[in-house]
């Protein structure tokens, strides 16, 4: 691995977000912004990644995990001061340092790598990532010299009329010769209206010292968008979703309406799977090939096999096999496991339950804390009575058992292999293999009794 380093600035609170959550922890397509940046940096060729933390330091560190080293900026005194927090680790090293931001979740490792490549190839002291936009109002302009190198970066409020017409803007992302960066950072002053130490001042010092500063213009301006408020957060989410959806479609997934399909940045979907509108697939869900999902389904942190059909249902933290049918209007709650060719039909709720191969719960059923063997039939309206108000209890149903409609299985209870439970039964004792269990009051008909009730008089 080369002597390349990344510094990600993530110390700001983000007051414009108007949130108790620190800015870089706000999610874009199901993942905190800081994680997007750390993950993309991790895909580039860096020897070490540092994250500068400040507000909410412990929470940000938790999100970063072991993928980068966090350095604390006790006082937020500007971007230059933030980068200086890595001086003890980097100032005496040869190599290249890229400065990124924890609130630019759309940056890609390809763009980072291109910026590094052009800076190293041209032996420049620094490279500035730029973009050209039609309306550059509010952005710092990149002014080039006759050779095409960077002559200066001028802020919008300080630009003259000619400079204001320049449409190439500074994105704030830089690649530096590491030693020169830290040498000049110590010369940056805070003689400005904000009393802060600004990283772009290093570019000015390099130019003054006749050092070569170049610009690399990205074709994807949206990659460089920073998020400062909820409006920009939504815009970043839209760009990210388009990117995710396009990647999925290029890999062989059919999205019937990409604009109304929401996929997390960490989910995977196999080829020839069809996703219908209104579907949300979140977390680290993994969906196999040839599946049909939706419309209007929600899947969170599930593993789903091949050729499975899910229609208008909600699935959470569960494992689903191949050729399974789920829905419409089913709810698969956490810790459930549904094996191949099983069916969970309309208005069926499953919680912490294992359903064996080819078993069916076709409609209006609750299965909680249960284990079903193979080829089990659960009749309409069947309930595993798993909770006594204090503790949860398990129900076990053997292979080939048939549970009639409207049965209550009062746990803890075991239904043996091949056993039958008559419709309307409330089972409180275990049933042996191949036995028939009937647990209901004997019917009594009282002739003409309805006449005595006189119900019809009011109709």
UniProtKB/TrEMBL annotation:
The keyword Metal-binding applies. CDD domains: GT2_GlmU_N_bac (cd02540), LbH_GlmU_C (cd03353). Residues 252-459 are annotated as: N-acetyltransferase. InterPro entries: Bifunctional_GlmU, GlmU-like, GlmU_C_LbH, GMPPB_C, Hexapep, Hexapep_transf_CS, MobA-like_NTP_Trfase, Nucleotide-diphossugar_trans. Binds 1 Mg(2+) ion per subunit. Coiled coil: none annotated. GO terms for biological process: cell morphogenesis; cell wall organization; lipid A biosynthetic process; peptidoglycan biosynthetic process; regulation of cell shape; UDP-N-acetylglucosamine biosynthetic process. Keywords: Acyltransferase, Cell shape, Cell wall biogenesis/degradation, Cytoplasm, Magnesium, Metal-binding, Multifunctional enzyme, Nucleotidyltransferase, Peptidoglycan synthesis, Repeat, Transferase. Its cofactor is Mg(2+). In the C-terminal section; belongs to the transferase hexapeptide repeat family. In the N-terminal section; belongs to the N-acetylglucosamine-1-phosphate uridyltransferase family. This is Bifunctional protein GlmU. It comes from Sporolactobacillus laevolacticus DSM 442.
